[in-house]
Amino acid sequence: MFGFLKKALGKTNKSISDVVSEKSKEISRDSFEELLLEADVSYDLVELLVKKLSSSVNRVQAYNSLISLFGYDINLKNINSKPFVEMIIGVNGAGKTTTIAKLARMYQKNGKSVMLGAGDTFRAAAIEQLTLWADKLSIPIVSTQQGHDPSAVVYDVIASAISKNIDNVIIDTAGRLHTQTNLAGELQKMVRIANKAMDGAPHRKILILDGTQGNSSINQAKAFHEMIGIDGIIITKLDGTAKGGSIFSIAHELKLPIFYVGIGEKPDDLIEFKANDFVNAILDEVFLK
User: Where, in this chain's numbering, is GTP bound (predicted)?
Assistant: First the structure.
């Protein structure tokens, strides 16, 4: 997985290598500051990090500085009955539908049965896209017509999954801009209905963030977190951006776990996020081992 991550960070590491042309055992604090900024780590966070460092920085110091940003707790809910219900949140274009397919594929490979809920009833295209993925992966899906109440989909998919002893339910949600207040009410209702259908559901509310948006996605994430309380994040399109360093800012600002990162368009292109691997993949471009 480390090799896949390094490949996905190609554009980010290219921007770093433009700052530090040759690997060495130490670099100046100014160079460390510049490479972090080039990778799209937020200015305020960079200033916070570098002020704690001496005039020269070695790999251990850089590693300790960056790994400290991932000091969040992953609170996984233990459930005694099926299904495990996940609600997928995010704006249009962030990659929700593709990520749902990737999650479903990952669960399939782990021997789990999966059912999808097409809860984005605002867009007909969203229902169609998710249905296409369900057909491709041979996964059952519960859907309704465009404009219908998405909470009905939530209840029906959970009830159906319970009756069929399905392991995992993944529910799509509308991705209208987070500035539209009616979306907050819709999402909150979907959460309430999920809990009525199954006590404790949804067990995870996952926010999808577009990796190409860099730090601009942080305010978006805060808005969704205020709406319904996000449990963790999946960052998409990491392979298509030079802004991979924004992951440090996202982890620091939101204090939420990053569950996975998307590294391509195929159903298998989703890998577990490991902070240790991520930091080392960045530092390998800078320091001699």
Answer: 90-97, 172-176, 236-239
Amino acid at 84: F
Cα angle 244, 246, 248; round to 5: 105
Among candidates 82, 136, 78, which has minimal Cα distance to 113? 82
Instruction: State the fold for domain 84-281.
Output: Rossmann fold (3.40.50)
Residue 257 CA: distances (Å) to CA of 50, 105, 221, 287: 24, 21, 13, 27
Provide the token pair at 243.
């802004």
Return the C-alpha torsion angle 141, 146, 148, 150, nearest 10.
50
8 pLDDT above the threshold of 90: no
Binding-site residues, in ranges, read 90-97, 172-176, 236-239
- Sorted by where each begins, the domain ranges of the chain are 84-281
Binding residues for GTP: 90-97, 172-176, 236-239
pTM, full prediction: 0.92
Rg for the chain (alpha carbons), in Å?
A: 20
